[in-house]
């Protein structure tokens, strides 16, 4: 295992008018590691995800990404085409709402195959076979390969989005509330699916969630945010079982026991 | 295999007006390969706190927890979270009192996923063997354990703790909800682990189990509550 980080952020600051969204945020992610960003609505966690993934620029601070050749790239200094290429190949982004990522007018198989074609895949038969293999990995019946996503349930759409994201074997996946808005029965299956895929493929992930149970099940480490500030960071089970910061203690003690 | 020096742990409860609860103050503890040490003391004295601190689940406030990991000593108190994850993967196994898993995953998968260095097929075979040894019948292996009895869940937890074959095993009340037959199996498993050179630290309220497996006791005494 290497000690080089995959992604590193230092001194990120971003304000929306008077509202601080990020205040002096540092973050590190190592290959194969899952990092959860937790906090309440408005704590800045989604903003941090967007800044880490280059989708939103910070007012100050820097985000470094180490490419497979070991070169460091300043994510916010990259040219737009290079960043787009990164998002199409090495990176993946799983949105809370799968409709933000999927093309609703294209078949399920097309949605998965499109990412392969964007990477230069041209052999139709191979692309289709790989798309079907991925549908099966995310437990979507292969018979649905030619159906439009609009005929899919919310849970299936989310799984289709995950297949579309992972088909190119990204090294790093950003996930924004991947189980938000789903029925709890579907959430459990999706969690297990994400956990299995991330562990098996050795993918690193930054996961935004307000659900501490999701963080516990998926993440090695967790960052707790409050009003744009990272108030606590550490091993997931340590932060959740022995929280040190008043805000983390409040968060942990406020969870309903089912 | 594992040694603590001057281990301190207190809880600071911000929501309760900043109450401080000191639990451990300078605990010096050690366990060798092939040895089982039982943590003893009255309820609330801090046995589980000590055990959880050893695993890095609780953050110690002072002192050191030295663990032999890949031939070198590493201090859990100051190790980075990533290093603690690695130590848990290869060196430290933990059996908690409660099973906490992804819902709707089968008992067999839960155990098999905790295996190390085995192919998925081997892991499932080994998991099935362990579960069967712990009297979880094969017809239950494919079911998620949420609906299982307390004793059955505990045995799933035990199978998950033992399948990893870690050099150091931390056991928190491993036989609390088990009947005598299953209790004896757990005793046999702990004795086998010791014979294989593993270091075992456990909390055993059941004196029969404790007498059967422990070589030594380590007293955890309640501290006077500070104001």
Taking all Cα atoms into account, the compactness measure Rg of chain A is 18 Å
The computed structural class of chain A is: alpha/beta
Please estimate the helix content of chain B.
Answer: 25-40%
| Oligomeric nature of the chains | heterodimer
SSE series of chain A: EEEHEEHEHHHEHEHEEHH
Q: Choose one word for the global shape of chain A.
A: globular
What is the fold's blueprint, element by element?
The complex is a heterodimer of chains A (258) and B (227).
Chain A: E1 7-16, E2 19-29, E3 34-38, H1 45-52, E4 60-66, E5 72-74, H2 80-88, E6 91-94, H3 108-118, H4 124-137, H5 154-166, E7 172-176, H6 184-201, E8 204-209, H7 212-218, E9 221-226, E10 229-235, H8 236-241, H9 246-253
Parallel strand pairs in A: 3-8, 3-9, 6-7, 7-8
Antiparallel strand pairs in A: 1-2, 1-4, 4-5, 9-10
Chain B: E1 2-13, E2 19-31, E3 36-40, H1 47-54, E4 62-69, E5 72-75, H2 81-90, E6 92-95, H3 107-112, H4 120-133, H5 138-141, H6 150-163, E7 168-172, H7 180-195, E8 199-203, H8 207-213, E9 216-219
Parallel strand pairs in B: 3-8, 3-9, 6-7, 7-8
Antiparallel strand pairs in B: 1-2, 1-4, 4-5
Helix pairs in contact in B: 4-6
